[in-house]
Design goal:
It is built from 6 helices and 4 strands; from the N terminus they run ββαααααββα. The protein is α+β, with helices and mostly antiparallel strands. The two termini are about 55 Å apart.
Length: about 280
């Protein structure tokens, strides 16, 4: 953005000619593109759109990280609760096995009941091992997202889980998603930037370049002469039509991408609402 608000550096040129028979002819001058003053507001407008787009993309990336952490936390918290349930099941299975062994020793329980209880206990131990492995994997992912390593660890608090799991739900969720989508906002800024670029290319097609500045000459004998210097570019071979066509095509493609992105956001939210409705109905 700062660069777009700066004028290009002036050009300095020097021509020296050594004349036959002695003497030196020198011509010098400084020139500056006059059209840069005209294009400066358009360039700044284009850079402002790109700057806003960059900020929106950065914010979108940060929010995605936040949501990834939220999902990883919920997964780790659920894995911890699952492990507690399996440990309770294992404890009851071990108590049942001990009771069955005593009954078998007393002759009131047959071998089939003892074998079944042992199988249930073994299954409970396997479930605990699998739950421990799942919890370790989910905690590792959460710590990785949080940037923790070594002896650093996280504590999964139930109160935090209640806050994370409390998500908005309503009929206006689709409209809120479209209105607050940072990706769509960034696409809008890109669309505005391409429109500004199309306008800039249109003007450059008519005025490719115009340079103005002072000019001086020194002729043999030590005399100097000064005057204006004008240099322009004639759009005879390249009028900028191909560049303008490419910009227009990119602009049209971006418009269609914008519409498709909005449709995708609405589709995701509708699918999410359907899943939440089904889950609520199943719980009821």
């Amino acid at each position: 953005l700062v660069q777009a608000g700066l004028l290009r550096n002036p050009t300095f040129d020097l021509d020296v000619r050594f004349l036959e028979g002695g003497g030196t002819d020198a011509e010098f001058g400084i020139s500056q593109s006059v059209l840069e003053l005209f294009f400066l507001p358009l360039r700044k407008r284009l850079a402002e759109h790109e700057f806003e787009r960059a900020k929106l993309l950065l914010t979108d990336e940060l929010l995605r990280l936040v949501f990834d952490v939220r999902r990883a936390f919920v997964a780790a918290w659920a894995a911890e609760r699952t492990l507690e349930l399996h440990r309770e099941t294992l404890a009851m299975a071990e108590e049942g096995l001990a009771a069955t062994e005593r009954l078998h020793a007393a002759g009131t329980a047959d071998g089939q009941a003892l074998a079944l209880q042992r199988a249930l206990t073994s299954r409970a131990r396997l479930d605990v091992s699998a739950a421990e492995q799942a919890l370790n994997e989910r905690r590792e992912l959460l710590q990785q997202l949080l940037g923790l390593w070594g002896g650093e660890s996280v504590t999964l608090v139930d109160e935090l889980a209640d806050a994370v799991l409390a998500e908005p739900f309503g009929d206006e969720l689709e409209q809120q998603a479209v209105a607050s989508s940072l990706d769509l906002a960034a696409r809008n800024q890109r669309l505005d930037g391409l429109a500004a670029q199309a306008g800039l290319d249109e003007w450059r097609g008519w005025f490719p370049g115009l340079v103005l500045g002072p000019n001086g000459i020194r002729v043999p004998g030590g005399r100097f002469g000064f005057g204006p210097r004008i240099e322009g570019e004639l759009p005879l071979f390249d009028s900028g039509a191909a560049r303008r066509a490419a910009t227009d095509a990119t602009l049209q493609a971006t418009v269609h991408d914008q519409v498709q992105a909005a449709v995708l956001v609405r589709t995701i939210m509708n699918d999410r609402q359907t899943k939440e409705f089904d889950a609520t109905k199943e719980c009821n």
